[in-house]
TrEMBL record:
<keyword id="KW-0808">Transferase</keyword>
<dbReference type="InterPro" id="IPR011006">
    <property type="entry name" value="CheY-like_superfamily"/>
</dbReference>
<dbReference type="InterPro" id="IPR003594">
    <property type="entry name" value="HATPase_dom"/>
</dbReference>
<dbReference type="Pfam" id="PF00072">
    <property type="entry name" value="Response_reg"/>
</dbReference>
<dbReference type="InterPro" id="IPR013655">
    <property type="entry name" value="PAS_fold_3"/>
</dbReference>
<dbReference type="Pfam" id="PF08447">
    <property type="entry name" value="PAS_3"/>
</dbReference>
<dbReference type="InterPro" id="IPR003018">
    <property type="entry name" value="GAF"/>
</dbReference>
<dbReference type="InterPro" id="IPR036890">
    <property type="entry name" value="HATPase_C_sf"/>
</dbReference>
<dbReference type="InterPro" id="IPR001610">
    <property type="entry name" value="PAC"/>
</dbReference>
<dbReference type="InterPro" id="IPR035965">
    <property type="entry name" value="PAS-like_dom_sf"/>
</dbReference>
<dbReference type="Pfam" id="PF01590">
    <property type="entry name" value="GAF"/>
</dbReference>
<feature type="domain" description="PAC">
    <location>
        <begin position="264"/>
        <end position="316"/>
    </location>
</feature>
<dbReference type="InterPro" id="IPR000014">
    <property type="entry name" value="PAS"/>
</dbReference>
<dbReference type="InterPro" id="IPR029016">
    <property type="entry name" value="GAF-like_dom_sf"/>
</dbReference>
<dbReference type="InterPro" id="IPR003661">
    <property type="entry name" value="HisK_dim/P_dom"/>
</dbReference>
<dbReference type="InterPro" id="IPR005467">
    <property type="entry name" value="His_kinase_dom"/>
</dbReference>
<keyword id="KW-0418">Kinase</keyword>
Length: 696
């Protein structure tokens, strides 16, 4: 009886000893995790070593499924007698299907005789026998409801009967291991999220309607330029940093998300302490409490200023291109009408027998037509299709030449100061268009100064620009690094209201009343056509400056030629006039017949070629419209020259001379007349090409 009692006491002490070791091991693992984040490899080494000591088994290992989930890989194996950790072994499901079925369905795999147990006997020849393993006690690891792997306890020596407390301990180890893996994954996700936030320059925020507290992370404080020590964490703090015009929009977005429990999204301007503004985009979502009321709104915010302004520039560019196409089409058709107005008025004015009152009326008609033609020119310049004759131009010489014109056109109290760089590289430009640009900028500056006294400073200089410097200019994507010439027109007037700066290049926008025309929009079109850029620098109360950047030419500016001898006054021969506009045809016929020429008319290229082919030598000159339906005017002119290389040709168009392309060999010596033209313009060009063909 005493012996039986002694045996019972021994079993109790053994059980209590095992439980104490198991409890200490579990407490150690739990405290290790509670003390702070650690690398998962370190945690797994602690799991295997502590479990081996608590159960007194030789081998403890943790395994995880492979990415393909066709087997498991050993993350850590601890051997108690050697106090040694290793990893890397793998087991494939196809080789041990019974074990994998048990792992997927059981809370624990209890195999006191591992070599005969249905779940583990498949390991016998390749794994159990070589390592002397007699018993196995394994527990699957489930993370987030998914089977992650297994923790294995392997006894070496005589077969071991696993007790219920040991089975429970193994399950607890598997649970703690799953918790460690979940914690590690969460920490990795947080680290990746923080890396993404840092890389994307993204801030985070949380707003609680219950406490009316707004919490910002460090990056959000930086975005809003609001130090944490000055931030009270209220919605009013946020509103103070938002542009007044955007506060209602932001508040409405908050309230909408709170009322619906849906997405929060807002785009607004944030004001920094230095007075600058940044474009902020905020996104988030309202999360509801168990009673359905809004618990908190959390989200992210990021500075999209650069992207926003780039998108706005692209949108403005597309808008200008669309308007340009419309303006160009209108101007082309209107130019043809003006040919009839200007041409016929000038034709009548050539009559020396006119009464004075008739001449006066015709001069008024001609002046009105020329003003309309100037507006057409602005439309075409805005469209980038104006009448350009590109030549090397010296900007410093152009400013000097225009000085007298400036004095006559500017206010009486305005003084013009020129700071011109000598030996300035030429720019490839249309000198007439650049004169107009310079004059318009000077007049704008004079009007900004007003009736008082002020100074306009015109500066030229050569500069070498790289990619970084060019990026500060509008439309920098079309500018290539290299040599440029800079023309600046600055005034000391009141400057331009920042609210208007984004609109000053819009067509017909003006602060000076109606009837101002295309203004800066036309200048911008001219500059764009010259492959340059235009920008504004202005401060309220400190004046404004317009900078014009043009690529430097490889060629020097030519010297101005002397006057030419006057051509003959009476024409001889037949002129072939090719134009699809009857109004233009009638004018050309009247002008040329009055000058002594016979005229043959053609409505299109096919008709012209048919008439010319009948008798090429009968024609003294061909007048060809560049823009016609069907066969292009340029192709008609080349075909005429192919049949007769010396044929004098005059090309007419309201568009640019560079529509001829790379100066076709067949058209060398041809004259170019811009529509709308006066009678004298057409007649002078006809006489010029005929005289040139005769060697005069």
């Amino acid at each position: 009886m005493a012996g039986a009692q002694h045996n019972d006491e021994t079993l109790v002490r053994q059980w209590e000893g095992r439980r104490r070791l198991q409890r200490q091991a579990l407490e150690k693992l739990a405290l290790r995790q509670a003390s702070g984040p650690e690398e998962i490899e370190t945690v797994l080494r602690e799991v295997t070593a502590s479990s081996a000591a608590a159960l007194g088994v030789e081998r403890v290992s943790v395994w995880s499924y492979t990415p393909a989930r066709d087997g498991i890989t050993c993350l850590d194996l601890y051997e108690l007698s050697r106090d040694h950790h290793s990893e890397g072994a793998s087991l494939l499901e196809r080789d041990f299907p019974g074990y994998f079925r048990a792992m997927a369905s059981e809370r624990a795999i209890v195999a006191s005789d591992a070599r005969t147990d249905p779940a583990t006997r498949e390991f016998s020849p390749s794994y159990l026998v070589p390592h002397g393993i007699s018993s196995m006690l394994d527990a699957p690891i489930r993370v987030g409801g998914e089977l992650f792997g297994v923790v294995c306890h392997e006894h070496v020596g005589p077969a071991r009967v696993w007790t219920p407390d040991e089975v429970d301990f193994t399950g607890s180890v598997a649970d703690l291991t799953a918790l460690a893996i979940s914690t590690s994954r969460l920490r990795q996700s947080e680290e990746l999220l923080q890396l993404a936030l840092d890389a994307g320059d993204i801030g985070t925020f949380v707003w609680s309607p219950r406490t009316e507290q707004l919490v910002w992370d460090e990056r959000t404080h930086q975005l809003f330029d609001w130090p944490p020590e000055r931030f009270r964490g209220t919605f009013a703090d946020l509103s103070d940093r938002v542009h007044p015009d955007d506060r209602a929009l932001l508040k409405a977005a908050f309230e909408r998300s709170m009322s619906t429990g849906g997405e929060f999204r807002a785009l607004y301007r944030a004001r920094r302490r230095d007075g600058s503004e940044r474009i902020i985009e905020s996104r988030g979502r309202t999360y509801l409490a168990t009673d359905g009321s809004p618990d908190h709104l959390s989200g992210v915010c990021f500075d999209i200023s650069e992207r926003y302004h780039a998108e706005q520039r692209a949108y403005e560019h597309q808008k200008l291109e669309s308007l340009g196409l419309l303006a160009g089409g209108i101007a082309h058709d209107f130019n043809n009408l003006l040919v009839g107005v200007l041409g016929n008025a000038s034709l009548l004015l050539m009559d020396t027998q006119l009464r004075p009152e008739t001449s006066s009326v015709l001069l008024e008609i001609q002046a009105a037509g020329e003003r309309a033609a100037n507006l057409c020119g602005q439309l075409l310049a805005y469209a980038g299709r104006g009448s350009f004759a590109i030549r090397p131009v010296d900007l410093s010489a152009l400013v000097t030449e225009a000085s007298e014109l400036h004095r006559a056109a500017l206010g009486k109290g305005v003084r013009v100061r020129a700071k011109l760089e000598p030996s300035l590289p030429a720019v490839d430009a249309d000198i007439t268009q650049l004169r107009q640009v310079l004059m318009n900028l000077a007049i704008n500056a004079s009007e900004a100064i007003g009736a008082g006294e002020g100074t306009i400073t015109i500066t030229t200089k050569a500069t070498q620009l790289d990619t970084d410097t060019l990026s500060t200019w509008p439309e920098s994507g079309s500018l290539a690094p290299g040599p440029y010439v800079l023309l600046s027109v600055a005034d000391d007037g009141p400057g331009i209201d920042p609210a208007l700066e984004s609109r000053i290049f819009d067509p017909f926008f003006s602060t000076k009343g109606p009837g101002r025309g295309l203004g800066l929009a036309a200048i911008q079109g001219i500059v764009r056509r010259h492959h340059g850029a235009l920008r504004l620098a202005s401060s309220e109360g400190a004046g404004a400056r317009f900078d014009l950047l043009l690529p430097a030419s490889d060629e020097p500016a030519p010297r101005q030629p002397g006057p030419c001898a006057a051509p003959a006054t009476r024409g001889v021969g037949t002129a072939l006039v090719i134009d699809d506009e009857p109004l233009v045809q009638r004018l050309a016929r009247a002008v040329l017949e009055r000058a002594g020429y016979r005229v043959v008319l053609a409505d299109n290229g096919d008709e012209a070629l048919a008439r010319y082919t009948e008798s090429p030598e009968a024609f003294a000159v061909a007048v060809v419209d560049l823009t016609m339906p069907g066969v292009r005017g340029i192709d008609v002119a080349i075909h005429l020259r192919t049949m007769r290389p010396e044929l004098p040709i005059v090309i007419c168009s309201g568009y640019s001379e560079d529509q001829l392309g790379e100066d076709p060999v067949e058209l060398r010596g041809a004259a170019f007349v811009h529509k709308p033209y006066r009678a004298a313009d057409l007649l002078a060009s006809v006489r010029e090409v005929i005289a040139a063909s005769q060697g005069c």
